[in-house]
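hey
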């Protein structure tokens, strides 16, 4: 297997319901990846070690999902120059708006590309990572273009039900 290009990290195993959608896209495009729990609050030393080693390990992007206070994407971005793609995970009480605000409100100088709340955000973060990798990989670019064309065709074939 070739070296891992994309890391998918989340603050808790409960985030997997959302973050598995990122992994599914990476698998569909055969992108070497890893997925693991790296909690910003419960395992900060592990989180810092992961971020600090990311570039040396050859990661091209890190997709970081978190709910609630959602510090994981920003703290990882603070410790690496590898692009961090943040996914707000829906929380029980505030439906992920709290997570969205936590991730998107990064201070100047520590960017995190922030995606939509939930499963669409996880899938789009992975598609964004694929697009980044495709800039240096013509075969992957062709595969992504075909994937997008298929999405267009599916939309064109949609039929509306009759008025009742």
């Amino acid at each position: 297997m070739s070296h891992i290009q994309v890391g998918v990290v989340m603050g808790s195993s409960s985030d997997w319901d959302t973050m598995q959608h990122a992994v599914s896209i990476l698998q569909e495009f055969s992108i070497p990846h890893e997925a693991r729990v790296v909690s910003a609050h419960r395992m900060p030393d592990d989180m810092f070690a992961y971020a600090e080693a990311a570039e040396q390990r050859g990661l091209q992007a890190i997709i970081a999902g978190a709910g609630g206070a959602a510090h994981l994407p920003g703290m990882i971005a603070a410790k690496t120059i590898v692009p961090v793609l943040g996914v707000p995970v829906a929380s029980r009480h505030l439906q992920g708006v709290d997570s969205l605000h936590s991730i998107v409100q990064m201070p100047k100088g520590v960017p995190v590309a922030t995606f939509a709340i939930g499963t669409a955000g996880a899938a789009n973060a992975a598609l964004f990572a694929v697009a980044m990798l495709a800039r240096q990989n013509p075969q992957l670019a062709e595969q992504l273009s075909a994937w997008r064309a298929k999405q267009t065709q599916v939309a064109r074939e949609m039929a509306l039900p009759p008025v009742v």
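The CA atoms of residues 3 and 47 lie 20 Å apart. The two ends are 54 Å apart (CA to CA).
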